[in-house]
Design goal:
Number of strands: 12
Radius of gyration: 21 Å
Number of helices: 14
CATH architecture of the largest domain: 3-Layer(aba) Sandwich
CATH topology of the largest domain: Aspartate Aminotransferase, domain 2
CATH class of the largest domain: Alpha Beta
CATH superfamily of the largest domain: Type I PLP-dependent aspartate aminotransferase-like (Major domain)
Length: 383
């Protein structure tokens, strides 16, 4: 098989060796239950408190505003279910966008179909951007929660979350942003730059461990819990804390967020070369924003082919890519993200996403470009 070229960094990233080393003591030395009253448990409690303090300093938030979760999906579920239910007595109108990750959209679908909430799904323009004016028009007196992602996982479009959050704050509406794809790719100053009350983060998107994430909850908001049991995480998230995963999350954030591990200055020329190639190949069409885009993400559709055949043909060449969200891999449905851009269904079902990372090289980009015409030809013949 040809040498592997991994262009699927939006799906996951390899665990950084230094992050792994930071996790190891929590398997061997600090293995106690932080809720236990004896000295072994209290030793674990002390290191958990220290990890939370480190996280708060990095985010420039209060330690009490940091809730450790099992990842981005749980953080999104807690933000949406917890807030909608907590504020249901004030109103049952919710707003999101048409191109959110399914970890967000399916929460809103459930609240709408099972719990009597009304949901407005904001449209996006042809590049995948939400209009602040559309948000202003959609807000109602009974709106309690708005959720719009910071950057899209499939097409890389960056949303004007600061402006959207400011609109919500002015109207007294809680604003959540799924920033899972944003962290590690865009410059971070502090949580206030989002104007958000709730922010979801996931470690394995920036060389941390899987099974680790966090939800920032701006004080004094206190969403209802969605997991029940003990009083962990300030009674917001029941379950014994996963200290090794939390240690990895904190270490990865400290290493790779102040200076984003997805270095724009290095990745922009690589993605620009891919975009130039896509633009030059007949039957290939770039999707998403050319201006407001993650520097590592290049997504396009292919005439006369489908995503399953394209992924198989790329894999035979040793190229790891994606047909959209890894969480929806294998689905026969066209990408809801690309469909929301107005792309016709047969093209929406031919999505290819290349997402580059810190180990990607121009040599790999040129190799992908060299084999792409043959990959497309084979995929079109397989249809």
């Amino acid at each position: 098989m040809p040498r592997t070229i991994y262009f699927d960094y939006n799906a996951t990233t390899p665990l950084d060796p230094a992050v792994r080393d930071a996790m190891l003591p929590f398997f061997t030395d600090f293995w106690g239950n932080p809720s236990s009253v004896h000295h072994v448990g209290q030793q674990a409690r002390a290191v958990l408190d220290d990890l939370r303090d480190r996280m708060a300093r990095l985010l420039k938030a209060k330690p009490s505003e940091i809730i450790f979760t099992s990842g981005g999906t749980e953080a999104n579920n807690l933000a949406i279910f917890g807030t909608a239910r907590h504020l249901a007595s004030k109103g049952k109108h919710l707003i999101t966008s048409a191109i959110e990750h399914h970890a967000v959209l399916h929460c809103f679908d459930y609240l709408e179909s099972k719990e009597g909430f009304k949901v407005t799904r904001l449209p996006v323009d042809s590049t995948g951007r939400v209009s602040p004016e559309d948000l202003k028009k959609a807000l109602r007196p009974d709106t309690t929660l708005v959720s719009v992602m910071a950057a899209n996982n499939e097409i890389g479009t960056i949303q004007p979350v600061s402006e959207l959050g400011a609109i919500c704050r002015e109207r007294g509406v809680i604003f959540h942003t799924d920033a899972v794809q944003w962290f590690g790719k865009e410059p971070f100053t502090n949580v206030e730059q989002f104007n958000a009350d709730l922010i979801s983060v996931c470690a394995h998107k920036f060389h941390g461990p899987k099974g680790a994430g966090l939800l920032y909850i701006r004080s004094p908001l206190h969403p209802d819990p969605i997991l029940f049991g003990g009083g962990h995480e300030n009674e917001r998230r029941a379950g014994t804390e996963n200290l090794p995963a939390i240690a990895g999350l904190v270490e990865a954030l400290e290493r790779f967020i102040p200076n984003p591990v997805f270095d724009k200055s290095r990745l922009t020329p690589l993605s620009a070369r891919l975009i130039t190639a896509v633009d030059s190949f007949p039957g290939l069409h770039l999707v998403g924003s050319r201006e407001h885009r993650l520097a590592n993400t290049v997504t396009f559709v292919v005439e006369g082919a489908d995503s399953i055949a394209l992924m198989a043909c790329l894999d035979l060449e040793g190229i790891c890519a994606s047909s959209g969200s890894a969480c929806s891999a294998g689905s026969l449905e066209p990408s809801h993200v690309v469909s929301a851009l107005g792309v016709e269904q047969k093209l929406a079902n031919s999505l290819v996403r290349f997402s580059l990372g810190r180990d990607s090289t121009m040599e790999e980009v040129e190799r992908v470009i060299a084999v792409l015409p043959e990959v497309v030809r084979r995929a079109q013949g397989a249809k």
